[in-house]
Amino acid sequence: MSPDVPLLNDYKQDFFLKRFPQTVLGGPRLKLGYCAPPYIYINQIILFLMPWVLGGIGTLLYQLGTLEDYYTAALSGGLMLFTAFVIQFTSLHARNKSVTVERMLPTDILAQEDEHEFTSCAGAETIKFLIPGKKSIANTVFHSVFAGLICGLGTWYLLPNRITLLYGSAGGTVLLFVFGWMTLCIGEYSLIVNTATETATFQTQDTYEITPLMRPLYIFFFVSVDLAHSVPGHPRALLEDVQDCCFHAC
């Protein structure tokens, strides 16, 4: 290929700059190919950070000594479960309305594939654009329950005291806490709000909506390993208990 020929032309650059953040963040469309109202971006940011806020409530109560770690996980998971159901039923209510999203005629498929016109911040057309909803009631319930489970386990896993015991430094605690919650927000957004368009997957063929489960499943597997080591009766947990008893006896 000639060195004067760009790897990506102008059209493909616009498409890449729009699609790449959406894929990395798990679904938020923070760069659209047209001038969208500011509340479209603000609503997406609020929905994206919602798990962090709900988990932060439990974390704060734990740090203040009000709740034990397992009650903290249950509280955050319950709040996330309730929020997920509210989000899904809000989307269902918007879809049942007669208002339709007005689609603008695109001049380029790559750069302007999702141009819409919006009339209000909380209108039916805005909700349907931000939260497409699930294809079946079974997935609505299952994904909402799974979102609550992931948020509860993630809150328990990312408790600052637990991270400090693991790394022994304030810097490591802060980094793992921030990036850990960013990962949880990405997984939760993909699960209950809107899934990123994967480049190698046709969404029309995803009949059982497996794609929204992939990111949360990765999180669940990682957290489950630490959870298994912390369960009483696990060989490693028993060894740590024996070591603690010997240390105190000495």
Automatic annotation (TrEMBL):
Tell me a GO cellular component.
membrane
Q: Which organism is it from?
A: Equus asinus (Donkey)
Name the UniProt key words of this record, in alphabetical order: Membrane, Transmembrane, Transmembrane helix
Q: Does the keyword Transmembrane apply?
A: yes
InterPro entries per UniProt: Pecanex
Indicate the family of this protein: Belongs to the pecanex family.
Domain of life the protein comes from: Eukaryota
Localisation: Membrane
Keyword Transmembrane helix attached:
yes
Q: What is this protein called?
A: Pecanex-like protein
Its primary localisation, in coarse terms, equals membrane
Q: Which chain regions cross the lipid bilayer?
A: 39-64, 70-94, 137-159, 165-184
Topology relative to the lipid bilayer, per the entry, is: Multi-pass membrane protein
Please list which residues make up the signal peptide.
Answer: none
